[in-house]
Design a protein that fits this description.
The protein is of the alpha/beta class. The protein contains 17 helices and 14 strands. The protein has helices at 26-40, 43-57, 67-73, 92-105, 119-131, 141-146, 148-156, 171-184, 202-210, 212-225, 241-247, 275-278, 316-324, 334-348, 354-360, 363-369, 388-394, and strands spanning 12-13, 16-17, 63-65, 77-82, 110-115, 134-140, 160-164, 189-192, 232-236, 257-265, 280-284, 287-291, 327-333, 375-380. The strands form 4 sheets. A 6-stranded mixed β-sheet has the order 3-4-14-9-10-13, with helices on both faces. A 4-stranded parallel β-sheet has the order 7-6-5-8, with helices on both faces. Strands 1-2 form a two-stranded antiparallel ribbon. Helix 5 (119-131) links the parallel strand 5 (110-115) and strand 6 (134-140). It is globular and about 55 Å long.
Length: 401
């Protein structure tokens, strides 16, 4: 099975993906699909995108050897793909730069977005400011409280941040509000979705904008180690955009293990966001995928200390990769993520986002399996500045030297 040719023409990854949306949105999705297909093969569009990624986003981002972390675990070699060094502090801007160029190409004048941790909202507000576009960002009221700094950043950039006060007041509810807005204003509005979720073509389009993470990793690893590919790629998974961007260029490379780490929150028998571990197939936000739901199909609330992982669904490509066994999915608790965050901060001088800390939390288990010659690349999806309030509330005495 060739992973690089997915999805099919109808936007399906096996049984997952597709379009489950109100009829009024179908023409907009068709228009977007055609615009994206044309842009992909347009040298002028690609040259503009490449220029912005280099001169505005700051790509390529570094591939950093984590020397002290490697020593701490007595091997394997641990390398960090530093998306935290992107402009705005997270990988999210790779995608928003691409989608704002599409919006302008399609003649749209109004941008809407949803955000959980605020990283996608800040990235969207940033590109709207760069191109002088109206910007409205929907955000759960609880997330606005947890990520107050990012709310201020969005407002400073000129965006209007609208609170979602229904349900759990987190990303799921913000997405519901954004979809309602899009249905009402579909003629002049472009919806910049922030992860590999939603109806076709969003999962494939957002993935394509983020595969630069994996392509850069391959080139940099060859230059620094002489190896064409690592033994293991490790990344956190909420919606899954950072992970799929890192994994995708390696999916059909023999002997490369891809591991996605979900948030098991208080533990798999408590409140959690482990969608692929404990969820089941269903429809959420316009696509078929794994999600957390009860026996009657009602969506269950997700929980994670990380606002960016606090989502009951996941990208449909991840669901297909789980079923096909091409990617392993594990989980880490809130406590394990906090311990990992403190460890990498003290040993490497890098404060990762709480999302990234979930991936790092799986390193002890990997280190017990792998020898010193093995190479592990960890996707550092974002920096931890935005999480300092949450970290301060939960941080205890460091458990590591």
């Amino acid at each position: 099975m060739n992973s690089l040719t997915q999805p099919d023409a109808t936007g399906h990854f096996g049984p997952y993906g597709g379009r489950f949306v109100p009829e009024i949105l179908m023409p907009a999705l068709e228009e977007l699909t055609h615009a994206w297909q044309a842009a992909k093969t347009d040298p002028e569009f690609q040259a503009t995108l490449d220029g912005l990624l280099a001169d505005y986003v700051g790509r390529p981002t570094a591939l950093t050897f984590a020397e002290r972390l490697t020593e701490h675990f007595n091997g394997p070699q641990i390398w960090l793909k530093r998306e935290d060094l992107c402009h705005t502090g997270a990988h999210k801007i790779n995608n928003t730069v691409g989608q704002i160029l599409l919006a302008r190409r399609m003649g749209k004048s109004r941008i809407i977005a949803e955000t959980g941790a605020g990283q996608h909202g800040v990235a969207t507000a940033t590109v709207c400011a760069r191109f002088g576009m109206e910007c409205i960002v929907y955000m759960g009221a609880e997330d606005m409280e947890r990520q107050r700094l990012n709310v201020l950043r969005m407002e400073l950039l000129g965006a209007e941040v609208r609170p979602a006060t229904s349900g759990s007041q987190t990303l799921k509810d913000a997405t519901n509000e954004a979809i309602r807005d899009w249905v009402t204003n579909v003629q002049d509005t472009f919806y910049i979705i922030g992860s590999v979720v939603g109806p076709h073509p969003y999962p494939a389009m957002v993935r394509d904008f983020h595969t630069i993470i994996g392509r850069e990793t391959a080139a940099q690893l060859k230059q620094k180690t002489g190896r064409d590919a690592p033994d293991v790629l490790l990344a956190c998974v909420g919606g899954g955009s950072n992970a799929i961007g890192l994994f995708h260029p390696f999916l059909d490379v023999p002997d490369v293990r891809c591991i996605g780490v979900e948030a098991s929150g208080e533990g798999l028998d408590g409140r959690h966001a482990a969608t692929l571990t404990l969820g089941s197939p269903g429809v959420l936000h316009g696509a078929m995928s794994y999600l957390l739901q009860d026996q009657e199909g009602q969506v269950q609330l997700a929980h994670s200390i990380s606002a960016g992982l606090d989502y009951p669904g996941v990208g449909p490509e991840h669901s297909w990769l789980k079923d096909s066994g091409q990617v392993e999915y594990v989980s880490a608790t809130d406590r394990e993520a906090l311990d990992a965050l403190q460890l990498v901060s003290r040993l490497e001088g890098i404060i990762p986002a709480l999302e990234t800390a979930h991936a790092i939390a799986h390193l002890p288990a990997l280190a017990r399996e792998l020898g010193p010659d093995a190479i592990v690349v960890v996707g550092c999806s974002g920096r931890g500045d935005k999480d300092m309030g949450t970290i301060a509330q939960h941080m205890t005495s460091p458990s590591h030297p």
